[in-house]
Amino acid sequence: MALQKKDDGSRQLVFLDELPWMDTPRSCFISALEGFWNGWACHRHNFMLVVCGSANSWILDKLVNNNGGLYGRLTFQIKLSPLSLGECEEYYKSRGIEFSRYEIVHSYMIFGGIPYYMGYVNRQDSLAQNIDNLFFSRNARLKDEFERLFASVFDNPQRARNIVVFLSKRNAGYTRNEIAEYLGISNGGSLSSVLSALVAGDFVMSYVPFGLSKRQVHYKLIDSFCLFYLKFVEGNDSLNEGFWMQNLANPGVVAWRGFAFENVCFNHIAQIKRALGISGVRTTQSAWSKKKDDEDGCQIDLLISRMDNIVNMCEIKFWNDMFCVNADYYHTIIHRQALLEPFLKRGMGIRNTLITTFGLEKNKYSSVFSSVVTMDDLFVL
Predict the structure, then answer these.
(1) What are the start-end ranges of the H helices in the chain?
(2) Fewest CB within a 10 Å sphere: which of 10, 59, 226, 331?
(3) 235, 267, 299: which is the final residue of a domain?
């Protein structure tokens, strides 16, 4: 054995990249890996095995949650998450790309903090030009990436894709029962496996909407790339090559930015809590809606429920200037607060919070917000 011959007592490190692809049909790879580790490697204190793989469902099922010979063998795991806004800013600067923070947020809405996609950005072009080149040009590099993504990451790519497409239809997400009903499958272990892989891969977040029981877990699509692709690229082969540049002010694009910024905020809860001075307070986060079965139906973008008996009722506004509260919007916020209050536990208070790009313009209505979180706050590392 090569490793045994080289073993002189010093540290031996073996690194296996893309381990899932070694596990080909009828290869008995996992059995061989179990035998190698349990029969030889684990007895050598100078030996370290590092493995990685992009197929997170395989990693979860075969290694992390292994119930066979590799059960409990993991010493440490590293989850490689997307870059935060602050890290995206550092990445662009390292490549000599001069984007404003407003543009970096725009890019996050599309690339989701994935360095692989950001690596295709050309510093000679504007962000809008880059989007056209990468998604809407004749030979766009990322036009077919959505399909390749699922094939490379999931054991059951079609089912994972179907779930993502379904979740993209509602910003607040769906329950397991709704997902199972839509897919026409049983609400059992196979669905659990796919959902766990989607959550582990940062495609989806699971949460309990405010005021509902723990059994009513919702799954919400938070992957920016998937949301952008399904909204503007999927099925739109007839779009011209300058689509993005020509539609920056299109109402559909403007509305999309609002929803996309909500997902940016859901991916930066730690930064929002830090800006509010509650980093050390245990919280749960969710969207909240009152069903539109009467005149009082409404939607609240983000609720941060705190262990110190406070709920931050967050309005999320992606604006190209200071946000200004007018009389109508003031009364809308007061109305939403009144609708939320009956759902709070006794003794809990509400703090109206604005999360926006450039801040809040002071006027006679701006006092409706007790705290403001700006785009710059989201860039804190």
Answers:
(1) 2-6, 29-39, 56-58, 85-94, 101-111, 115-118, 127-131, 145-153, 157-167, 176-183, 189-200, 224-228, 243-246, 251-266, 269-276, 327-340
(2) 10
(3) 267
| β-strand pairing of 298-306 with 310-317 | antiparallel
Alpha carbon distance 350, 338 (integer Å): 10
Tokens of 348: 């809990």
- Whole-model pTM: value is 0.89
What CA–CA distance (Å, rounded) separates 364 from 378? 27
Q: How far apart are CA 42 and CA 45, in angstroms?
A: 7
Please write the tens of the pLDDT for every residue from 204-247.
Answer: 999 988 878 888 899 999 999 999 999 999 877 666 788 999 99
Burial 240-253 (b: 16+ CB within 10 A, else e): eeebbeeeeeeeee
For residue 221, being part of any structural domain is answered with: yes
Same domain for 285 and 233:
no
Q: Which range of residues forms the domain containing residue 136?
A: 82-267
64 φ/ψ angles, rounded to the nearest 5 degrees: -60, -45
**Does residue 76 lie within any of the structural domains?**
no
Token pair listed for 285: 């986060």
Kind of pairing between the strands at 283-290 and 310-317: unpaired
State the Cα–Cα distance between residues 82 and 264, nearest whole angstrom. 12
Structure-block tokens of residue 215: 């059994």
